[in-house]
Design a protein that fits this description.
Length: 321
């Protein structure tokens, strides 16, 4: 990836994004509140890389690549000079982001694509501080950015298709996967993540199960499937008629919280029950079903083997004896 990139905000998220882009070949300049802070974070990122490389988390030679491609800039203006892509990764405070985006706009190439790593703030609200706002959009990496493969791309209403295509291209050149979503509150990632957390906390508050029990069920049942299949693929394989029945059961005690989604009813009325009918949310052809089941079974077995190899995560509460 033969481009120049600026990362404004070299902390945990910004620094990790810098590592990702630099390892893919981009020349990445880090900027922060001072040259000293940027330099200190650069040194931290290189030390991290040595550790990651020794443990097989980064490829062999990664640290040398970072030494060549990752640098600390003396100022924001120096970092963005000549950059084709600029990623803002400063604290989640709109006034701070506005100030930084104005500084970027004043110093950067007017054609440079500007992304924000925000996970919560409206892209449209931030765009008001950007000169040529058609080149601005959300480019939301997840924590830890070197190791999480998905990136949320969030254009606002005025973002140009050229800027979207460029951002997608830059991110996918690092080997990550992108999903383009609309600029709505919470975007997609956090709406889903916090919906699950909200229901989990309700179960704890109602005394249905402990936090430990809920975590166990999530990671060993439906969460076990999620690295391979999203919610629509899982629903299609289970059968949309089955989902409809489950919603009806849940409505016995929670009629509003678990109201049947209108789009689910529409699919069922159209005879699209998922993979068993050859069509659902993803319209997997019926003849592909044996291949899909074979992939699913192999994936789950290998995931189980990996979890046994790694052992339990060091977060579980001690078991009473």
């Amino acid at each position: 990836m033969d481009i120049k990139v600026a990362i404004i905000g070299s902390g945990y998220m910004g620094g990790g994004i810098g590592q990702v882009l630099a390892l893919a070949g981009a020349r990445v300049a880090l900027a922060d509140t001072s040259a000293e802070v940027a330099q200190k974070n650069l040194e931290r990122l290189l030390a991290e890389s040595v550790d990651f490389e020794s443990r097989g988390l980064f490829p062999e030679g990664a640290t040398e690549i970072l030494k060549q491609n990752l640098s600390a800039a003396a100022s924001l203006e120096e970092a963005v000079a000549g950059a084709q892509f600029i990623e803002e990764a400063v604290p989640e405070i709109l006034s701070i982001k506005h100030d930084i985006l104005r500084q970027i706009s004043a110093a950067a190439d007017p054609e440079a694509v500007i992304g924000s790593n925000t996970s919560t703030i409206s892209i449209g609200d931030m765009a008001t501080a950007v000169t040529n706002p058609e080149r601005f959009l959300g480019v939301h990496f997840s924590n830890p950015s070197p190791f999480i493969p998905g990136v949320e791309i969030i254009p606002h209403e005025g973002t140009s298709q050229a800027a979207i295509d460029a951002a997608v291209g830059y991110v996918e050149a690092t080997g990550k996967e992108t999903a383009v979503v609309k600029d709505v509150t919470g975007f997609v990632l956090n709406r889903l993540q916090y919906a699950l957390f909200h229901e989990a906390t309700q179960l704890v508050e109602d005394g249905v199960a402990s936090a430990e029990a809920i975590d166990t069920l999530v990671r060993t049942t439906f969460g076990f499937r999620l690295p391979f299949f999203g919610p629509f693929a899982i629903a299609d394989m289970a059968g949309l008629d089955v989902y409809n029945f489950c919603y009806t059961s849940l409505q016995t005690d929670f009629p509003e919280r678990f109201a049947t989604p209108g789009i689910l009813t529409e699919k069922i009325e159209a005879g699209k029950l998922g993979t068993k009918s050859g069509g659902g949310f993803l319209d997997v052809p019926a003849e592909k079903l044996p291949e899909l089941i074979a992939y699913r079974n192999e994936a789950y077995v290998k995931m189980g083997q990996l979890l046994k190899e790694l052992g339990p995560a060091p977060v579980a509460a001690p078991t009473a004896k």
